[in-house]
Structure formats: structure tokens, C-alpha cells
Amino acid sequence: MAHAAHGSNYLNAEKGLWSWLTSLDHKRIGILYFISVMSFFLLGGIAALLLRGELFAYNAVDALGKTTGQLLPSADAYNQILTYHGAIMVFMVIIPGIPAILGNIFLPLQIGAKDVAFPKLNLASWYCLMAGASLAMFTMFSTKVDTGWTFYTPYSIKSGTAVTTMVLAAFITGMSSILTGLNFIVTVHKLRCPGMTMWRMPLFVWALYSTAIIQVLATPILAITLLLLAMERTFGVGIFDPKLGGDPVLFQHFFWFYSHPAVYIMILPAMGVISELITTFSKKTIFGYTAIAYSSLGIAAVSFFVWGHHMFVSGQSEFAGIVFSFLTMLVGVPTAIKMFNWVATMYKGSIEFASPMLFALGFLFLFAIGGVTGIMLAVIPVDVHFHDTYFVVAHFHYVMVGGTLMAIMGGFYYWFPKMFGKMYSEFWARMSWVFIFVGFNVTFFPQFILGAMGMPRRYFNYIPAYEPLNRISTMGSWLIAIGFLMALYTIINGLISGAKAPKNPWGSKTLEWEADSPPSVHNFDHEPVVTAGPYEYK
Amino acid sequence: MINGVPVQEHYRDASHQFASAKEGIWLFMATEILMFGGLFVGYLIFHMKYPEMFAEGAQFLDWRLGFINTLVLIFSSLTMALGIYFCQINQPKKAVGALAVTILCGAIFMVIKYFEYTHKFHMGIFPGRMLDLEMLNHHLHEMGKPAIVSTNLGMYFGFYFCMSGLHGIHVILGMCMISWCLYRCMRGDFNPNYYTAVEGVGIFWHIIDLVWIFLFPLLYLVG
Ligand SMILES: [Cu+2]
Fold first, then answer.
1. CA spacing 20 to 30 A to B76: which of A40, A85, A521, B34?
2. Can you spell out the DSSP letters for B80-101?
3. Total structural domains in chain B?
4. b/e per residue, A186-224, with b = 16+ CB within 10 A?
């Protein structure tokens, strides 16, 4: 093959939109994912702002019969926007987020491979996501859906809205997730460069590998569940329909058998990113490499046996409840192993508070709160009280946003120089962190209190007693929005006028930093040969 | 191209590429099995709950047709394996023949399924709520048979149509993919060092046959 001209890299090797849409280069496909996922994030974020806007004020009807404090046209509109926010953020942002963007670009680089195992399949999975997303967008904007992202039966069967097409859209995005996972597993098994043994793989790769296993094993169950729901709506097959002796709770079992592991599809890659950030910015070998790697696999394994904790009040047997409660608490063990290892890594390290590290520290702080409240919710009597309240909303936002989104941002700032060969403005990156971190806590911490006070989730309105905390929460959402706008500015500004990035601006030890910034089409000039572990700081 | 094998540049050699492709296909088949697994779990749960209803439903399936279809698919698995074997020993003409017979078997299977389905529709048997009990009882009355006892017979046929329908879709997909292999085989793409596509489609076809071997007793012979 002809060697590319000097200065040529994966971004400028070929030109034109068509070359991007047909590219088989894992880095370019990662960029495609980046653009699309960030667009979905913008939409989901606008939906969130609308929801919070509606909840800003208590809706009262005054003496003249006029409603005050209402932002959205109707309660139905609120239900729809709630569904869109959930479905977009879960299926199109957080699930593909880290694996499909950062994983696609850096998994092959970190193991010294030229590409993923199946480049065509990789591009196909992007098209799957786009097809699913287009169908979902079409459904949202041409008709409406109001079931929430969980599509619970029996309402999802009875709802007169376009549940079927929405469900098919989720099915197709699921295909995308399966294909990405499959690709990553084979890549890790088969394409490691000489010397890159499994136990020398960076922890980000271990996390992606564990995630990929869950993607491949859990997503098919979602697929069949959604298909059955679609069948139920079109032909009334009766499996979820009590009139025919079917069981609506079976839907919940099926749904959470996927969707609980899916929570780890969302958080495990984030934990991988955090491992990279903490060790790099502490300039210290990671503490407990093996323990962190095994705990990823441990979380992946346990995740399949805890789904019943979503159903403590759905009428499952007491015994099942106790077992699920116990197994759920068990997840705390591998998670805590990671937390302690990260803290131990920082101990006596020379910590540099660069913006990626700030996001990593933010992750530790927020994820600790999200994790501990998760254990609280695993306690059945507590859950019976908190079930379907804002406490649960706050809990999973601390995990999903405080965890995953912080890691996406941190990872993105960390690898930005490698991806684009440019540096961004550190000042604006830090400012975006301040606003996102503070805004996040202002938004979601009051929701713990609201939940403890009994405020139910998914409601359009509330009693006046909940108003003050809801106001604070909504104002927090504005801070988050400002933070993300700053991040967007930082990125665009960096792309346009950033200084040229060196090969290894942070002094990291993993392989991707040995490639050029940005990498050439074939990643490395010569196939790398690995002789040591990934984080050997002296 | 290395020894007549199109090796992509991120692989060391043909066998490296072949092993990777095969692992990918097996992983994909795991997802297929898990997807059907969801249906099997649902079937087991409701079969435990309503054994009589399942037995009553199964009597409307003709086990002889199901059995013929089972034989047809098992035979097609053999011809599929032969197709791979002939590629391996560099006899593409024979491989084309074997693949053609496999496609033909798939077609026979689908034709028999078509007659089974239309017969049921004719009797008023549809999945779930759409089952026309009145029409079905009327037909039973004409045949001098007792009327339906179960109140939720529709659920059995919900399972029947979902499971055999999803399986049928896979058979059709398999036939398309085998046709693609057949076309490539005629074009002379395959040789003893390179037959990944046939091997992969073969694995798919065997798994789909295997699913049917479980479906047949569960749907036809139950009760
Ligand atoms: Cu869960």
C-alpha cells in the first residue's frame, strides 16, 4: 500500500462528506458517532429543560378559572416530552455514548491494532443507530408517544399513541449496540499487538470488554421483549394481556432483565475512562490493576441477577424480593473496589488538576452519592417508601449523569488532543466543569429531599409544598445548560484556533499516545510491541 | 490477496481473519439463541400455568406436517455442511449443487408452513385476541368434534405464531444468505483457503435448524 504523504492523518486523508459516510476507519466512525450522539444529546437536553421549566412553578387555577404557572400546553405534552427525554438519553446518548465514540476511536489504538475486527460491521452499526434514531425522531415529531422510556404494559398496549414505531426504533438502536459489542469482543480477543497480553490491556479496554459482553448477552432479551410488545399491540398475542391469562408483570421482568444490565452498559465504560484519567493525572501507577479489571467482569456478571429490584412493589414474591435485594447490594462490592482503588491511586500521587481530572474527581464525588443511594434503594422497606418518587430520579441521575456524563466529558477533554491534534482552552474547559458540576448538584440534590417528602416522579404538577425545592432544581438545570454551552464553545474554539497538540500532552503511558496527534490512517507507523503493563509510571 | 484470499490489512494472515470472522458469527448466533430464549422462557411460564390450554391448542397442529418439516430441515443441514465441505476440497460445482438443494429445502419448509398457516386462518385460528372462537367452534361442530373448553386458547396461538413466525423469518433470511453464497460460489470466489462466507452462513443455518428442533416438540407434540 502506498504510504500517505507527510502530515496526512485520518481526518484529512480523504475529503468530502461521502468519504465520511462510507469510511471504514474506526476513528472516522467514532467521529460520526460523536456528531450524531451529541446532536441527540442536545435534543434530549432541550426536552429536559422543558420538563424542568414546567416543574418550575406549581400550577394553580385562580378564582377566575385561569391556570397560572403552566409552561407546557398540556399534561399530555409533558408525558410526551418525558418519554422523548428518557428514550433519547437512554437509547441514543448514554448507551452508545462512551463505547461508540471513545471506544471506537481508542480501543484499537490502546491495544495497538490497525482497526476493529469488522470495519464494515462497525459502519453498519452506525447506520443502524441512525436508522433507529430517524424512526424515533419521525415518530416523535409526526405523532406522539406517552409511555415513558420503559414502555410498561398494560398502558403501553392500551395507549393510543405511536408506541409500536417507537418500540421498533428502540429495537433497531439495540441492533446497533449488539453489533458494536460483538465487534469489540472479537477485536480484544484477536487484534492485540505483540506483547499486549490480556493483563497488559489498559483498564478502559477492560471496561469496554466487560460492557461488550453485557451488550451481546442482554440486548437480545430487549429485542424479543420489544418485538413481543409490538406483536401484542398489532395482533394482541396475549402474553402480556391479563384478559387472555397473560401477565403484564412478565413484561417488567423481561424489560429489566435487559435494562438493569443496560445500566452497566452505561456506567462500566465510564469507570474505564475514570481509571485512565486518575492514573494519568496522578502520575502514578494505578493501584490494584487486576482488582479493577476483575471488578468490571464481576459487575457484568452480577448485573444479570438483580433485575427484580425494580419490581419490589410489582407483586413479586417476598422471597424473590429478599434475594434480589441481597444480590443488588452485592453490586456495591466490585463498585467499591473500584472506588477505593482510584482513591488509593491518588494517594501520594502528584495530582494535576487539569480539566479531565476535575471531571474524574467530579465523577468520584457524584458517583459515590449515586451508588450509596442505590444501596439504600436496594433495601426493601426503604424502596417501598421511595419507589416511584423523585428519590429514584435523583439516584439514577447521580449515577447516569453524575457518573457517565462526567466521564464522557472528562474522557473527551482528555482525548481531544489525540482526536483532533489541537489543544483546547483549559480555562473554558474548567469553567464548563464548574457550571456542570455545581449545576448538577443544584438540580438533583433537592430531588432526593423531594423524593423523601413523597413527591411522585413523572407528574405534570405537584402540591404547593414541593414548590421551593423544585424551583432550585430548575435553576440548577439552567446552570447545567450553561456549562454544556461552554463545553461546546471550548470544543469549537479548540477546533478552530487551538494550538497544535503534541503527541502526548499529558504524559500518559498507554499506547494511543504513541500514535501521532491526530493518528495516521493506519494508527501506527510500525506495529507496536509491548513489553510492560499499561501504567508504569516511575 | 494472500494465496487467493482477500485478507484485510488489519489481519496478519488468512487464518487470523478466518478465526476472527468465525468468532464474530458465533457471538451473533449467541444473540439469536438468547432472543429465541426469551420466547422459550415465556412459553415455559405459561405452559406451567395453563397445561390443558396448551394441550388443547396443540391438537390443531398436524404433527405429520411438523415432522416432515423437521426432516426437511435436518436434511438441509446435511446439504449445507456438504456445501462447506465441497468448498474446502475445491469442488465449487458440487458446492453450488449442495447449496441449491439447501435453498430448495428451505423453500419446501416455507411452503408447508404456508399451508399450515392458511389452514389455520381458514379455521378462524389467529393469534391472541384475534382468534375467532365462534368460527372455530363452528368448524369443529361441522367436523363432529367437541367445542373449545379453554377461555384463553388465543394465547397458545400467540406463542405458536410468534415462535414459528420469527423462526420462519430466519429461514427466509437464511435462504437469502445461502443464495448470496451460491452466487459467489458460482463466481468462483471460494477456494480451500477462503470460504468464510459459506462457513458463517452454514453456522447460521444449523442454529436455525436447531431452534426448529426445539420448537417442533414444544408446539406440536405438547399435551
Ligand atoms: Cu436496576
1. B34
2. HHHHHHHHHTT-HHHHHHHHHH
3. 1
4. bbbbbbbbeebeeebbbbbbbbbbbbbbbbbbbbbbbbb
Question: What distance in Å separates the CA atoms of residue B99 and residue A329, rounded to the nearest whole number?
Answer: 53
From residue A115, how far is each of A25, A522, B154, B211 by CA, in Å? 7, 8, 50, 34
Task: Tell me the helices (H) and strands (E) count for chain A, helix number first.
Answer: 18, 2
Chain A nearest C-alpha distance from B2 (Å): 14
Domain CATH for B108: 1.20.120.80
- Pick from A359, A393, A358: which is nearest to A373 by CA? A393
Tell me how far apart the alpha carbons of residues A126 and A25 are, in angstroms, rounded to a whole number.
Answer: 12
C-alpha A445/C-alpha A220 separation (Å) is: 35
Q: Given this model, what pLDDT does residue A147 score?
A: 86
**Location of C-alpha cell 474505564:** A272
Nearest to A237 among B28, B49, B158 (CB): B158
CB contact under 8 A, B27 and A117: no
Q: Could you give the count of Cα atoms lying within 13 Å of A129 in the half-sphere of its Cβ? A: 31
Does any domain span residue A520?
no
C-alpha cell, A270: 465510564
Supply the range of the domain harboring residue A85.
20-514
User: d(Cα A258, Cα A262) in Å, to the nearest integer?
Assistant: 6
The reply to whether B11 falls in a domain is: no
Enumerate chain B positions whose Cβ falls within 8 A of a Cβ in A. 8-10, 16, 19-21, 23-24, 27-28, 30-32, 34-39, 42, 45-46, 49-50, 53, 126-130, 151-152, 154-155, 158-159, 161-162, 166
Candidates B35, B133, B163, B207, partner chain A, best to mutate (most A CBs within 10 A): B35
Q: Does some domain include residue A533? A: no
Phi-psi region of B144 (alpha: psi -120 to 50; beta: other; left: phi over 0): left
CATH classification at residue A106: 1.20.210.10
H-assigned helices in A191-288: 203-235, 248-282
CB atoms within 10 A of CB A138: 14
Residue type, B41: V
* Mean pLDDT value across chain A: 92
Q: Is residue A366 part of a domain?
A: yes
Q: Is residue A105 part of a domain?
A: yes
**A186/B24 CB distance under 8 A:** yes
Q: Is residue B7 one of the residues assigned to a domain?
A: no
DSSP string of A318-381, one letter each residue: HHHHHHHHHHHHHHHHHHHHHHHHHHHHHTTS-----HHHHHHHHHHHHHHHHHHHHHHHHSHH
C-alpha closest to that of B120 among B157, B156, B72: B157
Strand A67-68 and strand A60-61: pairing?
antiparallel
Note the ipTM here.
0.92
Secondary structure (DSSP) of A469-519: HHHHHHHHHHHHHHHHHHHHHHHHHHHHHPPBP-S-TT---SGGGGS-SSP
Q: Which residues surround ligand 1, an ion (CB under 5 A)?
A: A 260
In a domain, B8, yes or no: no
Asked whether the CA dihedral A454, A459, A464, A469 is positive or negative, the reply is positive
Note the pLDDT tens digit of each residue in A51-75.
999 999 998 888 887 888 888 888 8
pLDDT digits (tens, 9 = 90+) for A318-361: 899 999 999 999 999 999 999 999 999 999 999 999 999 999 99
In a domain, B66, yes or no: yes
What confidence tier does A15 reach under pLDDT thresholds 50, 70, 90? Answer: confident
Number of domains in chain A: 1
DSSP string, A98-116: IIIIIIHHHHHHHTT-SS-
- Inter-chain residue contact B128 with A244, CB threshold 8 Å: yes
